[in-house]
Specification:
Number of domains of chain B: 2
Distance between the termini of chain B: 79 Å
Helix content of chain A: over 70%
Largest sheet of chain B: 8 strands, mixed
Number of helices of chain B: 10
Largest interface: A-B, 34 and 35 residues
Order of helices and strands of chain A: HHHEEHHHHHHHHHHH
Number of helices of chain A: 14
CATH superfamily of the largest domain in chain B: Periplasmic binding protein-like II
CATH class of the largest domain in chain B: Alpha Beta
Structural class of chain B: alpha/beta
Helix content of chain B: 25-40%
Number of strands of chain A: 2
Order of helices and strands of chain B: HEHEHEHEEHEHEHEEHEHH
Strand content of chain A: under 5%
Number of strands of chain B: 10
Oligomer: heterodimer
Chain lengths: ~300, ~290
């Protein structure tokens, strides 16, 4: 009896260990593949030429700066929409809404998260673009703003779901303690509950940003894909070209091993490194923030 | 013991499944040929219509047709993943060099002709443009419709993506006016939309827009707002149609190509011969393209 128990234990531990390590291994392998296919771009096209402002690959203009600024504008815009709406909704669902409302609203928000992004892109083309063009008196509705609005809508359900769960996990004793000390409900939420759920909320935002940077189809359909340098304050109202849309639109036409192919992988590498940077920053904030008092009390 | 029995049962099921499928391999030999056809989005509808007609007449041949742009088709031919590449532009010299380096000798066939129609929103009063004016609009020199005699509105330029043969042809013939030494490029704020449908949609709803696409892709509600193009300011302004393409009076007409790797043999040769026959060329006319004479 004891022998079989040990055999099962070893077997299951081994399986779980393999799964855990394999996640890291896969990410490392993907990184090395991107490096292998993307680094030749630095030799074939000098770094100086890669950092120019003209992206027209069929005539050997490989300036990726317009693509970087395009992705940046759309991501920042999307987060400016997703953060207040996402955290606001999460706070409402966790702290303010009565139980019965929460039971109805939470599944609805998760349903919104289940809509494929292509469908949202399609709705964007048909409804959002004419509205933006007429309402804001723009030359065309195909702008970074349309992309940011759609990406915000895509990132909100992810953010709400995780932030709401982490707010819910804050022990009731925290709120009771604050109320006992004379704090109002809002003071409790803003100064006690949210900071206590900080790591979960940051994780939620980080996942939202990750989703936004990597979103391809919806932005390809509504941002116009014009490789403009999006650095002016009015750039949110002009068309832009994101890195993801560039890879999606052009990867099919490149011959294996050509310069264009390597540059596209280089762009993929840049995207990977940006996501990595965002994740590392967020992780360092999360893991640093648990003060000794919090650890002792929880 | 229960776990061991379960594992044995699963293994038994997997082994029987493996054993069962080997009896079916002999039946695959019955399909005579499978032709893969990939490339230009301009040609894709035509290629699909041809494939359907040909397969109806020759049930032992199966043909698969995919779009993705001329660049995609040519790249696939170079990578040896496709039998016939559709292209709405000729293969470039460096593509031919790359193909030969990979062991592929491309052979070109002209299978139809096409006109590029320049189309504006129905509310736009401008209906006549010279090639030079269209070139200036698309290269960014003219930014307002008043520059070509229209209303006071900003010009929103629409184009296909860079992998499209239509895009490359437009660059060479219209923006660069056919001059190989001209290095003018599209203006950076030209909107590069991933499909013809995107261009048509935007032109239809945006009064500031101008777009271009193959004549076969202009829907009937936009046929009246196709621009008449002249080679120069004293030339005749010609609207694209089968007649004007065939008598060379419309300046923005082009050949449509299919490329194979080496001279085609067998099923591919029969298919290409059928495409060049009058029966297939009637389908060309029905879809809004121009049959080869």
């Amino acid at each position: 009896m004891d022998k079989t128990l040990n055999w099962r234990e070893t077997f299951i531990t081994a399986v779980v260990k393999t799964c855990g390590y394999s996640a890291v291994v896969f990410v490392v392998l993907i990184f090395f593949f991107l490096l292998r296919q993307g680094l030749p771009a630095l030799f074939e096209v000098k770094l100086g030429d890669l950092l120019t402002t003209r992206w027209y690959p069929i005539e050997n203009h490989f300036g990726i700066l317009p693509l970087l600024t395009g992705s940046l504008v759309v991501t920042v815009g999307a987060m400016l929409i997703a953060i207040p709406f996402g955290i606001g909704t999460a706070v409402f669902l966790a702290e303010i809404a009565p139980r019965w409302m929460r039971e109805i609203l939470k599944p609805l928000v998760e349903l919104l998260g289940g809509i494929p992004s292509v469908v949202l892109g399609f709705l964007g083309i048909l409804l959002l673009l004419p509205f933006l063009r007429v309402f804001l008196d723009l030359p065309t509705g195909l702008t970074a703003l349309a992309g940011a609005l759609l990406l915000g809508a895509i990132a909100i359900p992810t953010t709400v779901s995780i932030a709401e769960d982490s707010l819910d996990a804050v022990p009731q004793s925290y709120r009771e303690g604050a109320l006992a000390l004379g704090a109002t409900k809002w003071q409790t939420i803003w100064r006690v509950t949210l900071p206590a759920a900080r790591s979960g909320v940051l994780t939620a935002l980080m996942l939202g940003v990750g989703r936004t940077i990597g979103e391809t189809m919806a932005v390809m359909m509504v941002t116009g894909n014009a490789p403009v340098m999006a650095i002016k304050s009015t750039s949110i109202l002009s068309p832009v070209r994101t890195m993801t849309a560039t890879i999606a639109a052009e990867m099919g036409e490149v011959a294996n091993g050509s310069t264009h192919y390597h540059v596209l992988f280089f762009i993929g590498l840049v995207l990977f490194l940006i996501s990595l940077a965002v994740n590392i920053t967020a992780s360092s904030v999360i893991f640093k923030s648990r003060k000794r008092a919090e650890r002792v009390l929880s | 013991m229960k776990a061991v029995r379960l594992i044995l049962l699963v293994l038994l099921v997997i082994l029987t499944a493996c054993g069962g499928s080997s009896g079916q391999t002999s039946s695959i030999a019955r399909t005579s040929a499978y032709i893969q056809n990939k490339g230009s989005d301009t040609i894709v509808n035509l290629a699909l219509a041809w494939a359907e007609q040909y397969q109806a007449e020759h049930p032992d041949i199966s043909i698969s047709v995919t779009g993705g742009g001329s660049g995609t088709g040519i790249a696939a031919l170079i990578n040896k993943t496709v039998d016939i590449a559709n292209a709405s532009r000729a293969m470039a010299a460096d593509e031919i060099t790359q193909a030969k380096a990979n062991g592929v000798t491309p052979v070109e066939f002209v299978i139809a002709r096409d006109a590029i129609a320049v189309v504006v929103n129905p509310q736009n009063p401008v209906r006549r443009l010279t090639l030079q004016q269209i070139s200036d609009i698309y290269s960014g020199k003219i930014n307002n419709w008043t520059g070509v005699g229209g209303d006071d509105r900003p010009i929103v330029r629409l184009s296909r993506e860079t992998n499209s043969g239509t895009h490359v042809y437009f660059l060479q013939t219209v923006i660069r006016l056919g001059d190989p030494n001209n290095t003018t490029l599209f203006s950076t704020d030209t909107l590069l939309l991933p499909s013809s449908e995107g261009i048509i949609n935007e032109v239809r709803q945006n009064p500031n827009a101008i777009g271009y696409d193959g004549l076969g892709y202009i829907p009937s509600d936009l046929m009246n707002s196709v621009v008449a193009v002249a080679r120069n300011t004293d030339g005749p302004y010609v609207v694209p149609s089968i007649t004007t393409v065939n008598n060379n009076s419309y300046p923005v007409a082009r050949d449509l190509y299919m490329y194979t790797s080496g001279q085609p043999t067998g099923a591919i040769k029969d298919y290409l011969n059928w495409i060049l026959s009058p029966e297939a060329q009637t389908i060309v006319a029905n879809l809004g393209f121009v049959p080869i004479k």
